[in-house]
Amino acid sequence: MAEPNWSDFRIILALAKGGSVTGAAKLLGVDASTVSRRLATAEEVFGAPLIIRGGGKFQFTAEGRAVLDAAEDMDAKISATTSSVRCMRENPAGTVRIACVQTAVHLLRPLARQVMDAFPGLHIELMSSFASVDLAKGDADISVRTIAPTDPGLVVAYSFTWGSCLYASTDYLLSSGRPATLEDLSTHQLVQYGKPLLPLRAFGWIE
């Protein structure tokens, strides 16, 4: 019986992240039939069924869950090792792209200057947008977000505390009064975040 290799673990990891054969195919940049073939190969190598299909969905078998746990550990180790090796360079050079929301640019701009002063060969590019980025695909090198990622292959680090406040124009306060309690807000007009953001803790506090 052949010994398993990284590709056998990687296909299970892609299935878990993608949630389906089609989703795994998109993550790996291949077609669905290729995913099915690689899955069949992995099951042959491990000598056990790894998923149970049910229509368009599937669930992992006990053997599949064990392989997935190992794959997540391996992926995290590979990412951490890769980051460590890259950080070992004494004279880093190139461009580091940092994705952040627009309101964080003013906080990061001084940091970018400090980094470039310390490492003349290193250039910091700030990418301000509310759109999500895929670090694994190289959309950016670092992402500053208020929501923790779910990808086990990413390294998460605390950066700073970000507060939120309510604001009103002077004219509005003169015409409508200043709220003194939380209950008072129910009688005021509020400009809120868009519906896609409201379920998130970082944005839904106003609800």
Automatic annotation (TrEMBL):
Pfam assignment, any one: LysR_substrate
Protein's UniProt keywords contain Transcription regulation: yes
Residue runs in coiled coils: none
Domain HTH lysR-type: 4-61
Keywords (A to Z) from UniProt: DNA-binding, Transcription, Transcription regulation
SUPFAM superfamilies the record matches: Periplasmic binding protein-like II (SSF53850), Winged helix' DNA-binding domain (SSF46785)
Superkingdom, natural source: Bacteria
PANTHER family: HTH-TYPE TRANSCRIPTIONAL REGULATOR, TRANSCRIPTIONAL REGULATORY PROTEIN
Sequence similarity: Belongs to the LysR transcriptional regulatory family.
Protein name stated in the entry: HTH-type transcriptional regulator DmlR
Organism: Roseobacter fucihabitans
